[in-house]
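To whoever is on call:

I kicked off a structure prediction for a single chain this morning and the downstream step that reads the tokens threw a length-mismatch warning. I double-checked the sequence; it's 197 residues and nothing unusual in it as far as I can see. Pasting both halves so you can look.
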Amino acid sequence: MKKLPLALAVLVGLVVSAAGNTVMLSTRVQDALTQLDALPSSAQLNSVHGSAQAALDNLRDIAGDDTIDPGVKIRAVRALPQYCDLPCSPTHEAHVALTTLVTTPRFRDARSGSDVLILRAGIESLGVLRVPEDVDLLVPQLSHPSRDLRAAAAHALRDLGNPAAIDALRARFVEEQVPQVSLAISDALRVLGQPNP
């Protein structure tokens, strides 16, 4: 099992060097972001980057670089919330990187492949940051063709705690045909203090 992270690290290194990428990933950074079983902690990331600010800068750069291996990009996106104290400011670097990602047409409009997985990671990470103003970014994703993405959007809206999401959640609940998504919407409405329609 230890060979898989090493193989991914080597693959990422080859992709990065072949693409002439501007984000240089050291072996230690690649190792930290290719673990499959757990998200690296901020202490681990700070250690491999040298400081918290260097880690945040590198994670932000990885999240914004379209030439990075999708698996590494997803791990960086999921790690970004560790660098913003809650409640996160809408102008914090981690939040700006995530909102940029989920509003980039390539990801915002993704319908298949790794772009959908990256979008989902971004949506889930925005929920973790709990910036109430993100309702407008997340509500459109309640209509995404992917049930997993719709459920992730409902969970993120729940986590934001902004009652402005209630009408959109209720409208989607009435239309939703997938039990997994209906449960996520129901949970969001419950947390926001509203019964199901």
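Update from on-call: the warning came from a stale cache, not from the record. Cleared it. Sanity check on the structure: The chain has two domains: 1-83, 86-197.
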